[in-house]
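Exercise 7.
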Amino acid sequence: MCGISGMFDTRGQRLFDGALAARINNIQAHRGPDEADVHLEPGLALGHRRLSVIDLATGQQPLFVADGQVGIVFNGEIYNFQALRAELEALGHHFRTRSDTEVIAQAWLAWGPDCVLRLRGMFAFAIWDRREQTLFMARDRLGVKPLHYALLADGTLVFGSELKVITAHPGFERRIDPLAVEDYFALGYVPDPRCIYQGAHKLPAGHRMLWRRAAGGQAAAMPVSAPYWDVRFTLDNPISQADAEAELRERVKESVRLRMIADVPLGAFLSGGVDSSAVVAAMAGWSSTPVRTCAIGFDDPKYNESEFAQMVADRYQTDHRLEVVGSDDFDLIDQLAWLYDEPFADSSALPTYRVCQMARKHVTVALSGDGGDETLGGYRRYRMHLGEESARSALPLPVRRAVFGPLGWLYPKLDWAPQFLRAKTTFQALAMDGAQAYQHSMSRLRTDERRALLSPALQRQLGGYHTVELFRQHAQQAQTDDPLALVQYLDYKTWLVGDINTKVDRASMAHSLEVREPLMDHELIEWVATLPSRMKVAGGEGKFIFKKAFEPLLPHDVLYRPKMGFSVPLARWLRGPLAERMRGSVLGPRMLDCGFFNRQVLSQLVQQHLGGQRDHSDVLWSLLMFDAFLKVSEDGA
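Solution. The predicted structure, written as tokens, is:
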């Protein structure tokens, strides 16, 4: 696991400043503390920060093959690199290292841009081919590893694992994108391919891009990134329930086995949830020594899952490490703002940072259960969406809009009431199509709430743009009208990449820890997408087939207890120990003077929350993290 960076002159062969190339590379030193190097030649700079995991002796980067004509910088792991190496050697390719990096470079020589179709793993890389004067960039299918880029006014392409590589370049102008602000306050993160700054982009998951140097110093056009993979929900597998359970269990075991290859200490996160527990059970079956497992607990019982993690640790006799975190552990706000480069409002980033910090004391590589909910239908919101879809299918959209639209507008927002009385969001969703309703349910702030919060000036800059457009765009590409498959697809394109993978990548890399996700294996996902949705959500039970498959390997209480999640007590924090920090941030000069917000609404949100009339913890946390981002941006960090 590493950090990559680079500059490419799309117009000619200017010599780049070596000191600048080293500086933008080293700004992400936390991603790779073991080694660093920069390659310079006319019109090109390639930088790499290395976290040594495989081939510790000879896996240095940038790496060149073909007599120095092809170079690569790579972040990630290719789990089938040994099989690919054997295939390439049979084709006549010769290797000088044992690294998966060289396998990618040789695969480029053999198959060109289609080399990505052969790779099974998590990756972001750039390949320079001097023969063709091209720079090829690619990102893994599920967006586990990040890749940012920007084309500057002088024709310089700057790219890196983290956005801070681009913002550290003196030629990049930090101008906040109004559309990104809208997306952030809708979702709590800035979704791909957008970045918080205009002119900066994320290469989307499952995409590749080929840059070709323009002739005669002409301005180069930015190429359009092209998808090379997508998940297709066929839902047509005729397999029986029993056979599906057995095959799913074996596929998960195989995915775990592939991710246990490392030349450094390896372990796993063990939260006590279904997904991480299943991964640990599979690891125990492959390991001749006790699996190293890491967990954090909370001193507040409402947020503590450690007893369930201990059940799994006891069953498999793991080398288990537990650290208890105080329920008022919130002193990471400014650190997170620097790490994430963009406003990021998922408060579980705090405990994720802590569990990565704790795990790095014992291992260099950790397996996680991330991706299980999206792939196997585990979220409670999926079951709620299916219920709403049943109601939506009973009435035409115009009728639903006429009936439920006014109800959603008039019904009060009863944050304090029992769940069955909080019908406002449901009424609003019933008046919408499926994609719009799902985006509505995923929003931290609903459309009308964002219109109230965001200033008229910012809304004019939006030009009528709403985040739902992104969801509808993805829905059109989903090629399915199955309600569960559609929202799973939407999560693959938005939530999983923009929130989950971003959160884990930045939190783990902050501690130079590599995290591998067996439940995001693309071959596993492709197979699960053939299973009927009734196998994933059945009888009100999410992840139905997954739980059945692992009944022989995990305690019943772990499999069938209510899902807790990795959460923190936001509402209490913002009325108690964080109240003054929150008030000072939300109503401070940066937020009041930036021109993005309605000052009266900001004041109202603070007063209502502190007074106990309403629970505005989600939006206030989003505003707090936005202010922290603005501070980092203003400081030029």
